[in-house]
Specification:
Blueprint: H1 12-22, E1 26-28, E2 35-37, H2 39-58, E3 62-63, E4 69-71, H3 72-75, H4 79-85, E5 91-94, E6 97-99, E7 106-108, E8 113-120, H5 125-135, E9 144-153, E10 167-177, H6 180-201, E11 206-210, E12 222-229, E13 235-245, H7 247-251, E14 255-257, E15 263-265, E16 267-274, H8 276-285, E17 302-306, H9 314-330, E18 335-337, H10 345-354, E19 359-363, H11 365-370, E20 372-377, E21 383-387, H12 391-416, E22 418-420, H13 424-434, E23 437-441, H14 446-453, E24 458-463, E25 471-472, E26 479-480, E27 483-487
Parallel strand pairs: 3-9, 17-18, 17-19, 22-23
Antiparallel strand pairs: 1-2, 4-8, 5-8, 6-7, 9-10, 10-16, 11-12, 11-24, 12-13, 13-16, 14-15, 19-20, 20-21, 23-27, 24-27, 25-26
Helix pairs in contact: 2-6, 9-12
The structure holds one RNA strand of 78 nucleotides.
RNA sequence: CGGGGUAUAGCGCAGUCCGGUUAGCGCACCUGCUUUGGGAGCAGGGGGUCGGGAGUUCGAAUCUCUCUACCCCGACCA
């Protein structure tokens, strides 16, 4: 096979980039740091969206939409929030262009300067909480359980396709509650939804934990996260779910009368997952032949490739192919019959491998004679000849098996890449030589955390379900009750 | 924002040091024939303001100045 991808072993970052481009998921655009998501990549996003949306609605959330622009003054209301986002905001200062009489072309009309600049949202807490203020007077108005599908802009220094782009797509949930407990439960519920989605749908095992003080969301009391492990041993933060306490309610003066007739500030959460998860999906499962997509997110689950010479051989093949396609469609499987005569079979095999289609069927004259098809699995690259009879239900089951197999493989990789370390030297050894997650005792101080950061790794999270054990901080030697997860990350 | 690099056909590159025919090569594209069970072969063909601007020169992809864009490495981040 012609080599179109740089191998993972040769250069992992290059492999990733090649893969995104060659498989047709996305490409860089004319705009710095912004990508074009191509149809195949967008189809994956639509699948993810569809499933997440279903999960949100099943837990009582509704979709709404808030403005792209946020008045600058809104940002200054929550101190930590400003601090966190001010450095990466795109700002609208004018509302009109005019012809440049001197240099030709267009120029910003200096007479069209805005009274107050508008920020292109990097996240919507501020505009949403300024709105919620008008929606809440009584505990009867609570909870508010809203999600929005949107694009946001963060002016990052360096960008990478899907992993970090200036503009990205995401969903952001913003809920308001009458009690602390209810908001905390919501925060927990949503991080668990992300974990479930990631594992069951994307086939990516995740650790669920809380962020340290220094790593949490700007303006949050607590940030819960899901952390996944990529094949190069680096961690990637998936979704995050924030317990915002009463911070935003206080900043935007959102008060309500509770059951006891007393005035109180509303309790808040926010949670989000982004197109970055497509990057995680790619890096978690794919190989040197291309993407490996779990069946549940694959836009095409089965592709049928006819093999024929001359137009006489095609009709009987098409007949069988269409029959199998219909059977699969009835079972809810998405199928593409690629009968283009502009590409050869070998070309198509390579192409669908690159695109990560889970199951490929090849049907040629031999199969017509014998009543068979050739079935190839993308995840294991196994091929075998199967009878046409009963192939649809076989594939239906096989897709489940593949979904499970992909998850299992990622899970085993993570297990093999998770190391308990008890000394500083062991930590450095894991980070520099082995990669993956290091589980280590930490004394909970900022000083020790900063020391860990000098290795270029960070504390990814404090596991929610970690076992309690006596230990000593690998930095300070001070006592610690449980281990935290340390890794280099994207 | 610091350090390094790049800009020549849709993509990837050579040519630039040392100025001089009509700016090449691979892939892709188009036409024809032969092919089709793992990215086909042969023949023919199309496609370029050499990133923009200014300068030096008889002559600039090549030298000088300038602007712009992008990439890589760091600090920031989902």
């Amino acid at each position: 096979m012609a080599k179109v991808l740089t191998s993972k072993e040769e250069n992992y970052a290059q492999w990733y980039n090649d893969l995104v481009l060659k498989s047709g998921l996305a490409e860089n655009s004319a705009v710095r740091g912004c990508m074009v998501i191509k149809p195949y990549g967008y189809a994956i996003w639509e699948k993810m969206k569809e499933e997440l949306d279903r999960m949100f609605k099943a837990t009582g959330h509704e979709n709404a939409y808030f403005p792209l622009f946020i008045p600058k003054s809104f940002f200054s209301k929550e101190a930590e929030h400003v601090e966190g986002f001010a450095k990466e905001c795109a700002v609208v200062t004018h509302y009109r262009l005019k012809t440049d009489e001197v240099n030709g072309g267009l120029m910003v009309d200096p007479d069209a300067k805005l009274e107050e600049e508008l920020i292109v949202r990097p996240t919507s807490e501020t505009i949403i909480w300024s709105t919620y203020k008008n929606w809440v007077q009584s505990y009867r108005d609570l909870p508010i359980l809203i999600n929005q599908w949107a694009n946001v802009v963060r002016w990052e220094m360096r960008t990478r396709l899907f992993l970090r782009t200036t503009e990205f797509l995401w969903q952001e949930g913003h809920t308001a509650h009458a009690t602390q407990k209810e908001a905390e439960d919501e925060t927990m519920q949503m991080v668990n939804i992300y974990a479930d989605f990631s594992e069951r749908f994307l086939g990516i095992p995740v650790l669920v934990g809380s962020k340290t003080e220094s790593e949490k969301f700007a303006g949050a009391v607590e940030t819960l996260t899901i952390e996944a492990l990529m094949q190069d041993g680096k961690a990637l933060q998936g979704g995050t779910s924030h317990f915002l306490g009463q911070n935003f309610a206080k900043a935007f003066d959102v008060k309500f009368t509770n059951r006891e007739g007393k005035l109180d500030h509303v309790w808040a959460t926010s949670w989000g997952m982004t197109t970055r998860m497509i990057g995680a999906l790619i890096m978690a499962h794919s190989d040197n032949h291309g993407l490996v997509l779990p069946p549940r997110v694959a836009p095409i689950q089965v592709v049928i490739v006819p093999i024929y010479r001359g137009n006489d051989e095609l009709p009987p093949i098409s007949e069988v192919a269409n029959k199998i396609k219909d059977q699969l469609t009835t079972l809810g499987v998405s199928v593409k019959f690629d009968d283009r005569d502009t590409q050869k079979p070998g070309w198509k095999f390579a192409e669908y491998e690159l695109k990560g289609v889970p199951v490929r069927l090849a049907i040629g004259p031999r199969d017509i004679q014998n009543g068979t098809v050739e079935l190839a699995r993308r995840d294991t690259l196994e091929k075998k000849v199967m009878p046409q009879e009963g192939i649809a239900s076989y594939i239906k089951n096989l897709l489940e098996e593949i979904q499970e197999g992909i998850y299992r493989k990622a899970f085993d990789f993570r297990s093999d890449s998770t190391h308990r370390v008890d000394t500083w030297d062991e930590l450095v050894d894991v980070l520099n030589n082995k990669g993956g997650f290091a589980l280590a005792h930490w004394d909970g101080t900022r000083e020790s955390e900063d020391k860990i950061k000098e290795t270029k790794a960070t504390i990814r999270c404090i596991l929610l379900d970690a076992e309690q054990e006596e230990g000593k901080c690998i930095v300070s030697g001070k006592p610690s009750k449980q281990r935290v997860v340390i890794a280099k990350a994207y």
